[in-house]
Predict the structure.
Amino acid sequence: MKRMKIAELLQSDTPIENVLVKGWVRTRRDAKRFSFIEINDGSGLKNLQVVADSTLANYEEIQKILTGSAVAVAGSMVASQGSGQQWELQAETVTIIGQSPESYPLQKKRHSDEYLRTIAHLRPRTNKYGAAFRIRSKLSFAVHRFFNDRGFICLHSPILTGSDCEGAGELFRVTTFDLKQVPLAAGQVDFSRDFFGSEANLTVSGQLAAEMFALALGDVYTFGPTFRAENSNTRRHAAEFWMVEPEMAFCDLHGNMDLGEALVKHLVAYALKECRDDLDLFARFVEPNLLPTLENIATSDFVRLPYREAVDLLLQSEQRFEYEVAYGKDLQTEHERYLTEIVFQRPVIVYNYPKEIKPFYMRLNDDRQTVAAMDVLVPSIGELIGGSQREERLDVLEDRMDEMKMPKDRYWWYLDARRYGTAEHSGFGLGFERLLMLITGIANIRDVIPFPRTPSNIEF
């Protein structure tokens, strides 16, 4: 007898005999001579209806099965006699693997997202979160496929680092010290006695490592978790999140923008093709305009707009914004969404930002006032990608680090890359959770990552 996934069974064109299915009970109801059991094994959105005849040896036990229980059912797939499904499983045996009590917290009703976050270990069993995390899995595969098909090399960049890529100081410190007896030297923490012999942190980005490998291997990418100790409780921020970060040698800002646009289009189109059943759920119950928005992104040419022109458009608009629009200030989400949803009604790539609002490693433009930075903005989300051409000129990079009072001795290896065979290169970071918010219409980042890490919350 062959064990099969429910999603595979429901796609069959013909009846199938002698199959074994294992899953969890969503509902059960009794008729005169049958018990109808809806089960789901997580492989797809649709449940499988099991028909258990009263002649089964353990029928009395079957009638006591409750929602949430794990079962194994052996039998044959036959044409359904009822409406709503093409196939049903005529049970020959029903084995209760794990009975669930009446106190099971996921009953047949809609639960709020806030409540489901308190039981994050169980929420994948709901339709919404099962669909969200199936999409997450498929898009993870699509990321690797996109870069593999283009000849990129996958880099596993370090999670522990002594560098602050963004220079903002929002780092989680890692130590083996007994916090009740921290060694001091001259009134300061003596990190020379710690595990690594110096201060260590969780990484905020794999970019700096990716740059080193791009300057040896050509085109590389890293895809992994990053961490920021930013005390923000907005729906767009989490302390732990995943980033897709390609880095390309011999590539300028325009090539960087080309790749960012191609990646977003590929991932959206992939979701529309490969995740349609799950997307339809979100279109029905979460975001009514989801599918037209995604189709528009997948088929539109992205607008390319210098930062100064973006600011002028916002200043000339009659829209009232909560945050001030001014040259020299970063764009806020409301500004980004206004550009993508109202002005252009498609994705926008804003580039050439003032150097004062961008990190040290971005290439200084000839005007000496702006850097070759770019942000890809999309409807509903705002910024999805942030990137730049990197500063490859050693003297200019050192001057920028001096301006920002950065310790060059800590980045000696990064500066070496400009000493030995320097070359133009560029890259970006795509926030994977923001991509999932875009593709599912889910409004809170806490609901597109399995176990969210946010201020004052590290449960599960």
In short: The chain has two domains: 2-98, 123-168+204-447. The mean pLDDT is 95. The chain has 13 helices and 19 strands.
